[in-house]
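Q: Structure tokens for this one, please.
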Amino acid sequence: MPFQPSPGRDGGYDIADYYGVDPKYGTLGDYVEFTHGCKQRGIRVLMDLVVNHTSDTHSWFQAARRDPESKFREWYVWSKKKPKNASSGMVFPRVQKSTWTYDETSKSYYFHRFYDFQPDLNTAHPDVQAEILKIMGFWIQLGVSGFRMDAVPFVIAKKGSGNVSASRAV
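A: Here is the predicted structure, written as tokens:
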């Protein structure tokens, strides 16, 4: 399971900071000590990498919803109107009612394949792709040997409604 800071609404899969350790698991220093200890014992550490979505409390999403001119706005998928297919493609159909949620602050709908508190990252955007590589490099430098990728089919799929590219608002 993920160990980064999270509000914990989905077992840690609602990540609020990709570069930290949730205090309930210790500190970043504790993590480095752990990975060094594993390496000394010939144990490789794999990390659960969650890059399909963030928590709605993540600073990127907060910036995106507050300011349409923020660089983070295009890091998520937005629509001024609720797309016609908003009730399809849900991962948890008995729990979710839609894959689009209206955000009062931004006056727009945002796309989320999972829960409404987990807005999808626009993984087609080059800056998001570069950030994912940066996140991976950060953890590799701290001793991670590999990654278990969460929700891969959704990471590589086009996001949003219809044939609209994820990098553009609908």
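A few notes: The domain at 23-156 is CATH 3.90.400.10 (Oligo-1,6-glucosidase; domain 2). The CA atoms of residues 79 and 170 lie 5 Å apart.
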